[in-house]
Automatic annotation (TrEMBL):
Keyword Transport: yes
Protein name, UniProt field: Phosphonate ABC transporter ATP-binding protein
Pfam families hit by this protein: ABC_tran
Entries under PANTHER family matching the protein: AMINO ACID IMPORT ATP-BINDING PROTEIN, PHOSPHONATES IMPORT ATP-BINDING PROTEIN PHNC
Residue ranges annotated for the ABC transporter domain, each copy included: 14-257
GO molecular function: ATP binding
UniProt keywords, alphabetically: ATP-binding, Cell membrane, Membrane, Nucleotide-binding, Translocase, Transport
Upper classification of the organism: Bacteria, Bacillati, Actinomycetota, Actinomycetes, Pseudonocardiales
Amino acid sequence: MTSGLSGTAGELLFAVRGAGVRYDGVVALEGCDLEITAGERVAVIGPSGAGKSTLIALLNGMVAPTDGTVTALGCDLARAPARTARKVRRQIGTIYQHFDLVEELRVVHNVNAGRLGAWPFWRAALSLVRPSGVGEVRGALERVGIPEKLDARTSTLSGGQKQRVAVAKVLVQQPRAILADEPIASLDPRLGGEVIDLLTEISADLGTTLVTSLHDVTMALGRFERVVALRAGRIEFDRPPGAVSSGDIEDLYAAVEPAS
Ligand SMILES: Nc1ncnc2c1ncn2[C@@H]1O[C@H](COP(=O)(O)OP(=O)(O)OP(=O)(O)O)[C@@H](O)[C@H]1O
């Protein structure tokens, strides 16, 4: 399989400047500044409701900032022409907690779904009858450790295997960045650890930027080179794990005082 296009080390892939997001009056994020460069592996942590999913959605353009700006691969996704934004989004692969797969389809089709957007309509439609680019799908499944599942019906796989299919689906996209929103929240700790190891290894091997939101702080501190902590919609700290103290973590997860 061809490797992802990693980009030059140090190249700015994501720039979040003074960004805020409000949903119908609810402040999900405010005043966020963040730069992520090519090849970095970043964990986003913070208590429930802190804005982790919203930050991931800002980076892939699923949500537009209500304040400030966000650029991904040099493109302001909220303001760029739709065609340009689509092209940039195709270079960002996102993995979700609930796998985002069609259970009734065979694994080969779910993996191919990662690149449907890059194919002309006729090829995408034909591929549902006779799968296209099977060699690359097989390569991606080998990379995630389940090549024998190519023809299996997705519904017959375990949770850990489904998340591996979701990773393979992103790999065939040959993304420059992989975003993962709570990718292990539905898995037991052992399988979760395996999926995080897989993602960090792929990121290191291909030089692909990885940004993952996580509830598991030990995993974030042990397996990532940078930890961004959110609390009540603000970035509380942004450091290498070695510079994060147990006091930092206690403060981060302490109950938020109600406004008086
Ligand atoms: N579509 C939405 N409409 C309204 N409010 C929303 C929406 N999505 C998120 N919120 C609110 O925005 C805030 C941040 O939510 P977000 O899901 O980003 O946090 P999170 O840190 O990912 O939480 P969790 O760890 O529980 O998944 C929360 O107060 C949430 O209720």
